[in-house]
């Protein structure tokens, strides 16, 4: 075989591969993601050319195959995509990566992770050198009269292009895995990486074979027989539900997909199918899970895809903070494959995506509320936390959620904010015209206070979830002429200052003496002793903490 061309790839720098290797090393498993997605792209491109009538040859079954040869220490990625001519190799493989070499060296210092380097410099293909001593391309272009071509590069600055050996259209990339990367020469390791990044790629990815049982006629007694056959092991589902139209999907489809993503989880409460194509492209399905006690464990469950290639489950900047407990998938080609932290924070599409998701979630909740109030109330225990968190943290969400957020009272009745206002405004307006909402954050300990409030026909709200402290503050800021008081924060009779103080059966002197006795016994600051009118239904003496001290104490307990 004659060498047709030898060349040197870089003029400005000695050798950029050590730099690439060094910077990419931390997440070197992405070489497989990059090479497999290039192969998938190549297959998609030939399909498109055929559809446009620009390719009239045999298309064949689209397939990408990954082959591990542990003995030879090679990993190969094969596709029946559009292939490349020798000219195209020079253009796409040599020039693209190396035209920017000097710029690369100039800028690599600022790069924060491998994705950023790949993204900025179009080095997806070159990530192969993170794990290889030598990389070989064998390729045959779809173009009429194209000759097979071969490209070999050992990670130095020189490459060789010569006549290749592929006899069918497409490309084979063979990596000769280096000594430090032998972990990738293990079947199960490759399978794990393929599953992580390629589970939903749009072209079938074959990795080895598997044995299945197939029907094989009947035995002498007429019972069905089976035989073992070897079939291709395809590691992916090519059309996951988020690529389909909601009209074509049943509840079961959504639940099955959820099980596929989170095998050991309980069924979700409901889901939202995302589908936008303007001003950005985004599809996906978000699920509301049943809330578990251990909230932290459930965070970061949303997976981000770009054209069905898994990118990351760090979606912090794309999904609003308060929705980080949701599960599911987001796919956006507008988020580049080689997405990086700093890119996400700066990107304006990402901000739009963020507010789109907020709006969609709000619309869905409003729809559930309108359609089936009872069902919605039943779900409130699980979704209330998200909704309150959203109302506390995002103004825009508050404005929508104020119509479907529910308040629950100690009698387990549920009201919207508007309904609640109407319910209590007559009886619970104080002499300054403020409507006073009374709440309990610990009904078992505050039972006697709740009872005395109820005796006065005051309603007591239940505010005992982890977010309720903040939620109360938000309500106080947002609701006009409304204040919230904790049921035990002052004597029940004074919660709403319109009542006459009950006449005490104790004389003033007697009251004073009793008060002094209690105050001596309680030495901590911030507690108030009050002598209440002694009618048989009242607690004669109450010890309360004033509201300011209580809030200080709560804050100290929350650690900030
Ligand atoms: P990107 O995929 O972002 O363009 P890469 O470095 O991954 O950057 O690939 C560079 C180019 O090499 C691709 O755009 C494509 O033209 C070509 N290429 C890479 N792999 C293949 C392949 N398997 N089949 C055909 N062309 C390929
Ligand atoms: Mg690529």
TrEMBL record:
Any Pfam family hit: HSP90
Binding site for ATP: 34, 38, 79, 84, 99-100, 171, 341
Listed GO MF terms: ATP binding; ATP hydrolysis activity; ATP-dependent protein folding chaperone; unfolded protein binding
This protein's record includes keyword Protease: no
Protein name as it appears in the record: Chaperone protein HtpG
Keyword Chaperone: yes
NCBIfam families assigned: PRK05218.1
Record keywords, A-Z: ATP-binding, Chaperone, Cytoplasm, Nucleotide-binding, Stress response
SUPFAM superfamilies listed in its UniProt record: ATPase domain of HSP90 chaperone/DNA topoisomerase II/histidine kinase, HSP90 C-terminal domain, Ribosomal protein S5 domain 2-like
Family membership noted in the UniProt record: Belongs to the heat shock protein 90 family.
């Amino acid at each position: 075989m004659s060498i047709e061309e030898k060349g040197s790839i870089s003029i400005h720098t000695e050798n950029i591969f050590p730099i690439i290797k060094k910077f990419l090393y931390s997440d070197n498993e992405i070489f497989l993601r990059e090479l497999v997605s290039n192969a998938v792209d190549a297959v998609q491109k030939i399909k498109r050319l055929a559809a446009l009538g620009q390719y009239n040859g045999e298309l064949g079954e689209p397939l990408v195959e990954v082959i591990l040869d542990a003995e030879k220490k090679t990993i190969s990625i094969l596709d029946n995509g559009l292939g490349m001519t020798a000219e195209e190799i020079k253009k796409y493989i040599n020039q693209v990566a190396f035209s920017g070499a000097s710029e690369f060296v100039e800028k690599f210092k600022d790069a924060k992770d491998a994705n950023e380097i790949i993204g900025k410099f179009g080095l997806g293909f070159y990530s192969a050198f993170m794990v290889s001593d030598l990389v070989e391309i064998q390729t045959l272009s779809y173009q009429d009269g194209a000759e097979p071509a071969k490209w070999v590069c050992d990670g130095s600055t020189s490459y060789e292009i010569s006549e290749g050996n592929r006899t069918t259209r497409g490309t084979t990339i063979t990596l000769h895995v280096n000594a430090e990367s032998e972990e990738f020469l293990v079947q199960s390791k490759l399978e794990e990486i393929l599953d992580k990044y390629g589970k939903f790629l749009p072209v079938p990815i074959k990795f080895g074979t598997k044995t299945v049982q197939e029907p094989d006629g009947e035995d002498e007694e007429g019972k069905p027989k089976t035989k073992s056959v070897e079939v291709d092991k395809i590691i992916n589902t090519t059309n996951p539900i988020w690529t389909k139209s909601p009209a074509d999907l049943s509840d079961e489809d959504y639940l099955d997909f959820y099980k596929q993503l989170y095998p050991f989880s309980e069924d979700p409460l409901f889901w939202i199918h995302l589908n936008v194509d303007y001003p950005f492209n985004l599809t996906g399905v978000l699920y509301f899970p049943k809330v578990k006690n251990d909230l932290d464990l459930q965070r970061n469950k949303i997976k981000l895809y770009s054209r069905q290639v898994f990118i990351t489950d760090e979606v912090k900047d794309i999904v609003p903070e308060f929705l980080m407990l949701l599960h599911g998938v987001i796919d956006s080609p507008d988020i580049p494959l080689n997405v990086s932290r700093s890119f996400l924070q700066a990107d304006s599409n990402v901000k739009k995506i963020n507010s789109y998701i907020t709006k969609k979630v709000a619309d869905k909740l409003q729809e559930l509320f309108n359609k089936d109030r009872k069902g919605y109330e039943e779900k409130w225990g699980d979704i209330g936390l998200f909704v309150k968190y959203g109302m506390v943290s995002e103004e825009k969400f508050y404005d929508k959620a104020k119509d479907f957020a529910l308040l629950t009272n100690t009698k387990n009745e549920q009201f919207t904010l508007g309904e609640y206002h109407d319910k209590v405004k007559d009886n619970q307006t104080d002499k300054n015209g403020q409507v006073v909402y009374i709440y309990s954050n610990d009904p078992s300990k505050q039972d006697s206070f709740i009872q005395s409030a109820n005796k006065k026909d005051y309603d007591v709200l239940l505010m005992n979830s982890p977010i309720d402290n903040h939620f109360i503050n938000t309500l106080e800021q947002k609701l006009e002429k409304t204040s919230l008081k904790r049921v035990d924060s002052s004597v029940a009779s004074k919660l709403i200052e319109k009542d006459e103080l009950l006449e005490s059966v104790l004389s003033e002197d007697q009251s004073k003496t009793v008060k002094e006795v209690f105050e001596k016994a309680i030495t901590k600051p911030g507690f108030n002793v009050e002598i209440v009118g002694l009618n048989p239904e009242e607690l004669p003496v109450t010890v309360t903490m004033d509201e300011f001290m209580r809030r200080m104490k709560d804050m100290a307990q929350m650690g900030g």
